[in-house]
Amino acid sequence: MPHDDEPTSVARLDGFCPGCEQKVTFVASGPYLRNTFRCSNCHSLPRHRALKHVLASYYPSWRDLVVHEASPGWDIVSRRLASECAAYTASYYDPGKPRGSIVAAPEMPCGSYRIENLENLTFADETFDLVLAQDVFEHVFFPNLAIMEVARTLKPGGAVIMTVPIVRRMNASRRRAALIKGEVHHLVQPPDYHGDPLKDGALVTLEWGYDIAGYLSYHSGLSFTLVQVDNIALGIRADLNDVLIGMKQPVPAL
After folding, report:
1. pLDDT tens digits, 10-25
2. H or E stretch at 113
3. For 193-238, how does the pLDDT look when each residue is reduced to its tens digit (9 = 90+)?
4. What H or E segment, with its residue span, contains residue 215?
5. How far apart are CA 196 and CA 188, in angstroms?
6. Alpha carbon of 197 to those of 13, 134, 209, 212, 230: distances in Å?
7. Gap between the Cα atoms of 167 and 216, Å rounded
8. Could you tell me which of 103, 106, 122, 197 has the fewest CB atoms within 10 Å of its CB?
9. Neighbouring C-beta atoms of residue 104, cutoff 10 Å
C-alpha cells in the first residue's frame, strides 16, 4: 500500500482489524488514507486502529479499568470502551449546562454523558486508571491546564492515551487561536474547524509538532511517550497516525 503522498493503486487489502478484532478487508476509497482507508466491518480509520492497537498492547486489561473518555466521536474504540469497560465515563463540554451534571443520551452507546471542561474538571483526584482523548488537544485554549487536570484525576500508575494530528512535525508547535478576556482572537487566518459530535464544528486552536510530548510532560508531571505504528496487515498506515501515552509513575531510580 503506498503512503499518503503517492496515488493509491490498491483499493482492497485483506488483514486483521485491531478495532473490531476481526479478519476483514480494508478498503481505500481515495489516495489520502487517513480519511479513506476503512475497515469493511467496523468502518474504522487508521488512527482508530492505531489507538486501539496501542491500548490493547500497553493495557490488555482495559476492560477492567476505570476509564474516562473526553469528547468521544463514537468510532469503534469509543463504542467498545462504552460497551465492554467495567467502569466507563464519557464527557463533553457544554458551557450552557452545569459542570458535573449528567445528561441522558439513549442514542449514544454510553446511555448518558457528563458535562466537563477538560481545563477544569469536577472529578475527584485519582479517580481513573485511564483517560482517553481522541483528537481533542488541538481544540483546547489552555492545554497546560487541561493536561494538569487529566494528571490530577489519574490514579498512581494510570495513564492518558491520546491522538493529536501532529501537523507541524519537526517544526515548533504554534497557536492558531487564543481566548483573551473571554473573546476568541484568531492568530492564523482563515480559522480552521474540525467536525464535532455535538456541534457544527470545533475550532482548531493549536497546531502541534513533535515537541508536544515535552510540553505535556512539563506541564503535567506525566512521562509522555510518542508511539508510531505502521503495520499494513493491521490496516495501520496513514499520515498523522501518532499516539501519545502519558504515564503517572515516578522516574525510575537507576
Report:
1. 589 999 999 999 999 9
2. strand 111-115
3. 987 655 667 899 999 999 999 999 999 999 999 999 999 999 999 9
4. helix 212-220
5. 21
6. 30, 12, 25, 25, 28
7. 17
8. 106
9. 9
CATH of domain 45-247: 3.40.50.150
What's the rounded Cα separation, in Å, for the pair 55 and 6?
Answer: 29
Contact 153, 131 (CB under 8 A): yes
Rounded to whole angstroms, how far apart are CA atoms 175 and 126? 30
The residue length of the chain stands at 254
What confidence category does residue 5 fall into, taking pLDDT thresholds of 50, 70 and 90?
very low
Domain assignments of the chain as residue spans, ordered by start? 45-247
pLDDT the model gives residue 196? 62
C-alpha distance from residue 5 to each of 1, 34, 70, 204, 238 (Å)? 11, 11, 31, 24, 10
Distance between CA atoms of residues 249 and 233, nearest Å? 33
pLDDT at 4: 45
Euclidean distance between the first and the last CA atom of the chain, given in angstroms as a whole number:
43
Cell numbers standing for residue 37: 482507508
Helix or strand holding residue 193 (H, E) = strand 193-194
Q: Report which DSSP code applies to 236.
A: B
Please name which of 128, 125, 120 lies closest in space to residue 157, comparing C-alpha atoms: 128
pLDDT single digits (tens) 52-68: 999 999 999 999 999 99
**Bridge-partner residues for 95, per DSSP?**
none
How many Cα atoms sit within 13 Å of 144 on the Cβ side?
Answer: 4
